[in-house]
Amino acid sequence: MEVIDIDYQADRRLNWLSNPIVKSLFLFTILTLQCMPSVAATVVISNERSGDLVFMDEFGDTSDVIPLCGRPRGMARHDSAGTLFIACSDDNQVIEFNTQTKKITTVFSNLAGATSLALHQATKRLLISNEGHAKATVIDISSGE
Fold this sequence. Notes:
single chain; alpha+beta; 4-stranded antiparallel β-sheet; 3-stranded antiparallel β-sheet; 10 strands; 17% helix; 42% strand
């Protein structure tokens, strides 16, 4: 009959922690992970019927509802933190919205049937499709023209 020393087997499995380099890397990894901020996701949805902008957290719970405009449709995110462009089709405008302050910062008017948006990050141009008008509009977001 063979007798196995259980403590000896456990010591062998944990032996890698006795290496000072491995132990340092292990502790560094644990400390780094504890110091990292947790990442929270936020989803922004335009509600075409109510005219609201709905904010949802990573669990699917509504965190905020902001009355916005008539029939918000397409959205485009600017590369800067917290800027969102939203087409307001019934109001014939596109708004620049700050998701941090939850306020409208700029209104681009006279855009009949603004529906879909795309932002060309390199040139800072906003491309807008105009529903029912068979055209597209391009706005330089730096100048507003």
